[in-house]
From TrEMBL, chain A:
Subcellular location(s) per record: Cell membrane
Species for this entry: Pseudooceanicola pacificus
Stated name of the protein: ABC transporter permease subunit
The entry's keywords: Cell membrane, Membrane, Transmembrane, Transmembrane helix, Transport
Membrane recorded as keyword: yes
Entries under Gene3D superfamilies matching the protein: MetI-like
Family of the protein in this entry: Belongs to the binding-protein-dependent transport system permease family.
PROSITE patterns the record matches: ABC_TM1
One GO cellular component term: plasma membrane
PANTHER family assigned to the protein according to its UniProt record, in alphabetical order: ABC TRANSPORTER PERMEASE PROTEIN, OLIGOPEPTIDE TRANSPORT SYSTEM PERMEASE PROTEIN APPC
GO terms classed as biological process: transmembrane transport
Automatic annotation (TrEMBL), chain B:
Protein name: ATP-binding cassette domain-containing protein
Residues annotated as domain ABC transporter: 8-256
InterPro entries in the record: AAA+_ATPase (IPR003593), ABC_Ni/Peptide_Import (IPR050388), ABC_transporter-like_ATP-bd (IPR003439), ABC_transporter-like_CS (IPR017871), Oligopep_ABC_C (IPR013563), P-loop_NTPase (IPR027417)
One Pfam entry name: ABC_tran
Keyword Ubl conjugation: no
GO cellular component, one term: plasma membrane
UniProtKB/TrEMBL annotation, chain C:
GO molecular function (one): ATP hydrolysis activity
Compartmental location: Cell inner membrane
InterPro entries: AAA+_ATPase, ABC_transp_ATP-bind, ABC_transporter-like_ATP-bd, ABC_transporter-like_CS, Oligopep_ABC_C, P-loop_NTPase
Protein name: ATP-binding cassette domain-containing protein
One GO CC annotation: plasma membrane
Lipid bilayer topology: Peripheral membrane protein
UniProt cross-references to CDD domains, sorted A to Z: ABC_NikE_OppD_transporters
Gene3D superfamilies associated with the record: P-loop containing nucleotide triphosphate hydrolases
GO biological process: peptide transport; transmembrane transport
Every ABC transporter domain range: 7-251
Region (Disordered): 247-276
Length: 284, 336, 328
């Protein structure tokens, strides 16, 4: 029985467009809009205004101001760009590299030992420490931050994918595909990867969300993106000393961060279900 | 008239908060002490759910069980709560399952798990428990039982594990044993051993057995009475000879003729009789007789109205509108 | 043999190492042959090596020693393109119709996969061929767009059969093709398989533990026990007059089809020995009701007895000490 047959007849729109998905889509588009147009319209929000220090939200400064009198609204809107770039790029990088390594390790026994020992070694170091070490090694900047966040996530993703692939490759349909003469690369790309995509999507949304948070953490620690380019992380970092005095500095970018992560997670879950024919298409 | 040992009348079971999934539909049967009733059916026939309802194994929140009567040895099972069922399980009734490996804890020894079963119901000293465990392991013909008490489940073969499960079920001498496809996962030679053992134990202890299976060969081997289920409903009920010689429901007759059997002297490559179509989904049952669209003997009326129960012989009832004797069960060679 | 042999194996051996110096002796020297158009049933209990043997024949696994000739080609030496060509001639039907179909592929894509792999005809011809195959296995063209989960178990197994027949193989290996299906569905699928076999003049290696099914489907039977064939012959002969004590025990253990024929004596006792530590001599002797002293010393060879029946038992083929070497 499908969802559509339970809901009232005459309901418009496809059945995957549920209320949480609509809300998530709305917020995601809003944040993307902020990331693209924010800096053009509002600049970087770096204008100092000594007369307006630590002002609570008002008609003049919607989200209040920080200790240097910078407008939190402008900084939050503009900061979306950095956070989104870091989140999406890191997720894509981790997915591509970690996913490929995981599939190779899971399908080919000869690669498994080597790749997994390297992954174990990397995973023994706490992720944030590794990121800090990489940033100090490579110097600051957006690209460095992305690499620094991606590297500790890659072995985790590779490990997860490896275990998923290990269980898929033992299923009889893989053997069936071998016996009808499919080449190895076809089996991997057409049977293994599509069946691992659910796990991959969940992992991607997790990595994306974690990357936004890690970027914030790195900025908070002062090794993230340069302070003159706002990101939600360094806005929060700049507000940490004034938390009792001016909680709005932390609150607004924090709320945006939560909304972004939540939206990505909800959409990721929906995407996973959407990609699984067992959960979507039903015919009598 | 004396009350039968186990009596079930009009048992229905549905799952889901609103009872939307009706998986068992008005099942009635009796079982006498020391006899074996075979519940025969395919996947989705409701045979296992019928049995687990007797054991009180369904959470009350998500399951709706209704019946006119459900009595075991004078105990009204309908009025039992979870605590009462826990008391009855093991002492009055016990159950064995298809897969003995997943029913045993892999981290504990056989002896420990059996002692636990005794200890749950009777307060005995450790030495008495051990003696009891040893005795029951001997009863289920486990070779070298002293050594086996310290073995772990993975060290035993499938047949031995199923013997341990039987030992665990019988350790407190229940009056009713429910066996849910206990030999399906086993090889034929081991299946024969387990069936033989169950027969021996039944004669020894006078246990009544409800044997759930899809295999008519096993039914012929072990059943006294047979109840055939299809898509959640009982379709025919009678003695094992009634069913095998005088099957009067289209489904029973179809199953008997469609089963590939080996008959001595048979020349190879004989075409099998087919039952067309596929099993209905319980969420989408056809109108009228559930089996009508697959039945070789269906009349047009079978598609419209639910068939009545009729007694074709004393104790042999069928839910089929076709006149009795309109068709015969396929002839079977009797000599082997 | 004057007849055209589709498959011929000689002393095929496959041992799986399981750590340390131990190994599972899955296949211990199997010699078997299947003629064109013949159905050979491979009978035995779980762990007897029948599925491992099937994997060797399919080229999904390599033997440790021995030879396997398929259509005159030595399978054990095939690599790359040769193996690819070989796979076209030998196809398989799997036990579990659900897990042997990719849940993300439609019926059409599943049946089309082998045709695409071997570039059979133009894409349009392939599509026509897929629809024709679906039709032949009793699934109409409207099933082409369906996913496996939208079908019943019997329909899924029909789909598996269509995939196996797409390349018009010479030999079909069916590994317990109906044991996962509901009883009322089995006859349909078995009849379909037999009809298609006869139509396409296929050779069939039918792996099963179900004597009833085997008696209906096969021309010849090979009974396996602990990685060896212990008896082989015409289905009628083996099932009606078994020569090996294990075959007798196996047939005895099959439930009688009628309650009037209930067993009156205890069945064959015990379990097969572990395939890790093979016993010396005949593998069946621990359970054998007629075991002799010689059974513990020599492994009986599979050869014709006085009646011409092929069996590996010292009772059928008494050991002549002066002729037998001391090692086996």
């Amino acid at each position: 029985m499908s969802v559509a047959s339970i809901t009232a007849p005459g309901k418009r729109g496809p059945e995957w467009l549920t209320i949480p998905v609509c809300i998530s889509l709305f917020f995601l588009l809003m944040i993307l809009g902020m990331a693209v147009f924010g800096p053009m319209i509002l600049g970087n929000g770096n204008e100092l205004n000594p007369m307006m220090r630590l002002k609570p939200p008002s008609a003049e400064a919607w989200f209040g101001t920080d200790n240097l009198g910078r407008d939190i609204f402008a900084r939050t809107v503009s900061g979306a760009r950095n956070s989104v770039i870091v989140g999406v790029t890191t997720a894509a990088l981790v997915l591509l590299v970690g996913g490929a390594l995981g599939v190779i390790a899971g399908y080919f026994h000869w690669a498994d030992m080597v790749l997994m020992r390297v992954a174990d070694g990397l995973m023994a170091i706490p992720g944030i420490l590794l990121a800090i070490a990489l940033v100090s090694l490579l110097g600051g900047g957006l690209v460095t931050v992305i690499i620094a966040i991606a590297v500790p996530e890659i072995p985790r993703t590779a490990r997860l994918l490896r275990s998923v692939v290990l269980s898929i490759r033992e299923l009889p349909f893989v053997m069936a595909s071998v016996s009808v003469g499919s080449a190895t690369h076809k089996i991997i790309l057409q049977h293994i990867v599509p069946n691992a995509i659910g796990a991959l999507m969940v992992q991607a949304t997790y990595v994306c969300a974690a990357a936004v948070l890690s970027e914030a953490a790195l900025s908070f620690l002062g090794v993230g993106t340069p302070p003159d380019v706002p990101s939600w992380g360094n806005v929060v970092a700049s507000g940490k000393d004034y938390f009792r005095l001016a909680p709005w500095i932390i609150a607004f970018p924090g709320i945006m961060l939560s909304i972004l992560v939540l939206s990505i997670n909800i959409l990721g879950d929906q995407l996973r279900d959407q990609l699984d024919p067992r959960l979507t298409k039903r015919r009598p | 008239m004396t009350q039968p040992f186990l009596s079930v009348r009009n048992l229905s079971v549905s799952f889901g908060a609103n009872g939307e999934a009706k998986v068992v539909n008005g099942v009635s049967f009796d079982l006498e002490a020391g006899k074996t009733l075979c519940l025969v059916g395919e996947s989705g026939s409701g045979k296992s759910v019928t049995a687990t309802s007797l054991m009180g194994l369904h959470p009350a929140k998500t399951t709706r069980i209704t019946a006119d009567r459900m009595e075991l040895d004078g105990i009204d099972l309908l009025s039992c709560d979870e605590a009462r069922f826990a008391e009855l399980r093991g002492t009055k009734m016990a159950m064995i399952f298809q897969d003995p490996m997943s029913s045993l804890n892999p981290a504990l020894t056989i002896g420990f798990q059996l002692r636990e079963a005794v200890f749950l119901h009777e307060n005995l000293s450790r030495a008495d428990q051990d003696a009891r465990v040893l005795e029951v392991l001997q009863r289920v013909r486990i070779p070298d039982p002293e050594r086996r008490m310290t073995s772990y489940p993975h060290e035993l073969s499938g047949g031995m594990r199923q013997r341990v499960m039987i030992a665990m079920a019988l350790i407190c001498r229940p009056k009713l044993l429910i066996a849910d496809e206990p030999t399906t996962a086993l090889d034929v030679t081991v299946q024969a051993q387990i069936l033989w053992l169950l027969g021996e134990l039944q004669r020894e202890f006078g246990t009544a057995i409800i044997f759930i299976t899809h295999d008519l060969g096993v039914v012929a081997e072990i059943g006294d009475d047979v109840a055939v289920m299809y898509a959640g409903s009982l379709v025919e009920k009678g003695s094992v000879f009634d069913i095998f010689d005088r099957a009067s429901h289209g489904y029973t007759a179809g199953l008997l003729s469609a089963t590939a059997e080996f008959h001595p002297g048979q020349t190879a490559s004989k075409r099998l009789v087919e039952i067309p179509g596929s099993l209905p989904q319980f969420s989408n049952l056809p109108q009228g007789c559930n089996f009508a669209d697959r039945c070789a003997f269906a009349a047009p009326s079978c598609l419209d109205r639910t068939p009545d129960w009729r007694e074709v012989a004393p104790g042999h009832v069928t839910s089929c509108d076709q006149p009795v004797g309109a068709f015969d069960a396929p002839k079977k060679e009797t000599a082997r | 043999m004057s007849r055209d042999m589709v498959m011929q194996t000689r002393d095929l051996v496959r041992h799986f190492p399981i750590g340390g110096k131990q190994k599972v002796h899955a296949v211990n020297g199997v010699s078997m042959e299947i003629a064109a158009g013949e159905t050979l049933a491979l009978v035995g209990e779980s762990g007897c090596g029948k599925s491992s043997f099937a994997r060797l024949i399919m080229g999904l696994d390599r033997p440790d020693s021995g030879s396997a000739r398929l259509l005159g080609q030595e399978l054990t030496q095939l690599r790359g393109a040769g193996l690819h060509a070989h796979r076209k001639a030998v196809q398989m039907i799997f036990q579990d119709p659900t897990s042997s179909l990719d849940p993300r592929w439609t019926a059409e894509a599943i049946v089309r996969e082998p045709l695409d792999n071997y570039k059979v005809g133009t894409p349009d011809e392939r599509r026509a061929r897929v629809l024709d195959l679906l039709d032949r296995v009793g699934l109409g063209a409207h099933y082409a767009e369906r996913y496996p989960h939208e079908m019943s178990g019997g329909q899924r197994q029909r789909l598996g059969i269509a995939r196996a027949l797409a390349l018009e193989p010479r030999l079909l290996v069916a590994d317990e093709p109906v044991s996962a299906l509901d009883v009322s569905i089995r006859a349909q699928v078995l009849n379909l398989l037999c009809d298609l076999r006869d139509e396409m003049n296929l050779s069939l290696l039918f792996i099963s533990h179900d004597i009833g099914v085997v008696s209906h489907v096969s021309d010849r039977v090979a009974v396996m026990y602990l990685g060896r064939v212990i008896e082989t012959g015409k289905t009628f002969d083996v099932l009606n007059n078994p020569k090996h004590p294990y075959t007798s025990g196996l047939l005895e253990a099959v439930p009688r089809p009628h309650p009037s024929q209930r067993r009156e004596r205890a069945p064959l006792d015990g379990d097969p020995p572990s395939p890790i530590h093979l016993p010396q001599g005949c593998a069946f002797r621990d359970r054998c009701p007629v075991a002799m002293e010689v059974c513990g010393r020599f492994t009986p060879a599979l050869k014709p007895d006085a009646e011409g029946r092929i069996v590996a038992c010292h009772h059928a083929n008494p050991v002549k000490p002066e002729l037998e070497p001391t090692h086996v």
